[in-house]
Amino acid sequence: RRIYSRYEITRKLNNRGYPENIIVQLIFWLENNNYIDDELFAEMWAQFRLQNKPIGRYKLNQELRIKGIKQDIIQKVIDKTYKEINELTLAQNLIKEKIVSSEIKNIKIDPKKIYSFLLRRGFSCEVAKIIYNKLNNF
């Protein structure tokens, strides 16, 4: 089982029809007994995403906002996560996998598509440009 953010639990309980006062009391109890910790949730989500389907800081920010995490926690987690892992290296490893996969399928790599792919994955324009230029010069 995975852990949930405060917002996700609140939404689930609302969807199941629980009264608002019960939800507030339950969330309060869960937080006081350390069953809910949005900062821990955000850290675990960031690690999970980077290990399984690497994304850039912009996409991670967006995903955590959707999960109801406060912006100050998001910024703290993003700073910590990308301090430990270089975003350029992460993007390069992702593209290496894509290149190997396309070579096996005998497909030509289009640097413009790689650039767009990196932007969709939440990497910065600077990181995408560096990789685009490397592929164009290759």
TrEMBL record:
GO terms for cellular component: cytoplasm. Belongs to the RecX family. It is found in: Cytoplasm. This is Regulatory protein RecX. PANTHER family: REGULATORY PROTEIN RECX FAMILY PROTEIN (PTHR33602:SF1). One of its GO terms (biological process) is regulation of DNA repair. The lineage of its organism: unclassified sequences, metagenomes, ecological metagenomes. Keywords: Cytoplasm. Gene3D superfamilies: Winged helix-like DNA-binding domain superfamily/Winged helix DNA-binding domain (1.10.10.10). Pfam families: RecX_HTH2. Residues 37-77 form the RecX second three-helical domain. The keyword Nucleotide-binding does not apply. InterPro entries: RecX_HTH_2nd, Regulatory_RecX, WH-like_DNA-bd_sf. Signal peptide: none annotated. The keyword Metal-binding does not apply. It comes from marine sediment metagenome.
